Amino acid sequence: MTNTANPTLRLPFERPDALTAPPLYEQLRREGPVVRVLTPAGDPAWLVTTFDAAREVFRDSRFGRSHPAPERAARITGAALLDGPSGNYETEERDHKRMRRMLAPAFSAPRMRRLGDRIRELTLGCLDDMQAAHDARPGEPVDIQEVLAFPLPVLVICELLGVPYADRALFRDFSERISDYDGGADAQLAMAEFNAYVAGLVAAKRTAPAPDVISDLIAAQAEDPTFTDEELIRLATGLLFAGHETTSNRISVGVLFLLSDPGRRDRFVADPDGQVESTVEEILRLASSGGTGMVRYAHQDVEIAGVPIACGDAVLIAIDSANRDAAAFTAPEEFDPGRQPNLHVGFGYGAYVCIGANLARTELRTVFPLLFGRFPGLRLAVDLGDIEMRSNRLAGGVTSVPVLW
Amino acid sequence: MRLTADTTTCVASGQCAMLAPETFGQRADDGTVILLNSEPPADQRDTARQAALICPSGAIQIVEPD
Lengths: 405, 66
Hints:
The structure holds two protein chains of two kinds.
Chain A: H1 24-31, E1 34-38, E2 44-48, H2 51-59, E3 63-64, H3 92-103, H4 109-136, E4 142-143, H5 144-149, H6 151-161, H7 168-178, H8 185-207, H9 213-223, H10 229-259, H11 262-270, H12 272-286, E5 294-298, E6 302-304, E7 307-309, E8 314-317, H13 319-322, H14 357-374, E9 379-380, E10 402-404
Parallel strand pairs in A: 2-8
Antiparallel strand pairs in A: 1-2, 3-5, 4-10, 5-8, 6-7, 9-10
Helix pairs in contact in A: 4-6, 4-14, 6-10, 7-8, 8-10, 10-14, 11-12, 12-14
Chain B: E1 2-5, H1 15-19, E2 24-26, E3 33-35, H2 45-54, E4 60-64
């Protein structure tokens, strides 16, 4: 194992199409579970490529999001989120635990189950809009992204957090700019604008609290004065971003998976309710989660799979590679909607596992049966190869999914 | 089958309670796991086993297999 990165191994790696992972991952998994790469920003980092090593690093408390000397840390991208270290090295574990305790009830399984009917209602509204778009221009493709994949998760997260849906164009713009790997100064500016927007919401809710998560966070702050305004705003901004970008991409890519093979679509249409849970897990396993993987910094000298990692080194956990590791999944490149068990790390793993996993599952399990129940003859209007990927964006995804029926 | 759930390692992701609501619940105040039934009946063991496998913190253990 050499300690110098091969300059050709610079993230994000090329992908042949929106449903396929970079072929380079397979080659790297053969080289070892931990390999040296360059981040999109050009700094050296360790890339964790295998399922076992990914779960090991996710679970290992010697890795965190903060850095002992942030100014010397490897930079990941030029975006304004997950672009480098975050949080306070001294207090990260405590801060993170507090955050989880505060938020977990709002995203708990019982709460998500109660939200199910409302998500169903919102989905049906989106499907009406989808039909209306079709009727307005008969024979023209309709972009699933615009009528369903973007609006639905935004409607849901707006209601949960207490954010006006009318402001969606505003925070969509912020979200796109903060997550651009080449964003640089504009990404930072967009982040400042995003935080200022959220600060306005927080101020309004301080005087007029409502039954929503931002008001809950404000209430939690009253009981814990060490939870600063800045942390509260950063957290609410992060939830608004993550709550729509990630699920939105899974809806778009899920539709692509089901439509890119007509037989696959027909098998799903034949029994959507019976197949949806395992189909959604397979979408979560294979949908690209962005080109850098999840960032961690070593908080001490660590050895992973025989590779020594020095304190402060950046470690990127390649979820997309781990989820295609033949040591963990039979025929890993195959989309198998009946795969059992399916222990993917699409939501991460360990202490930082996605807090919105149950929300995402509830949305995805609602959307696919309703979509294909209403439009069983849905088909792609273009070839899969013509679907443009947003490879330069934190949450990945595609620019549009034009469909016909 | 007999299960244990360690609330100190639990990270309150609630994935168990989503998958196997007969066996696992979540505390209302902090979202951590509540083991509703440490010896699930035969028809609930598959989902309980799955829940133990997907638990992101390893808090759920199967201490006695069927």
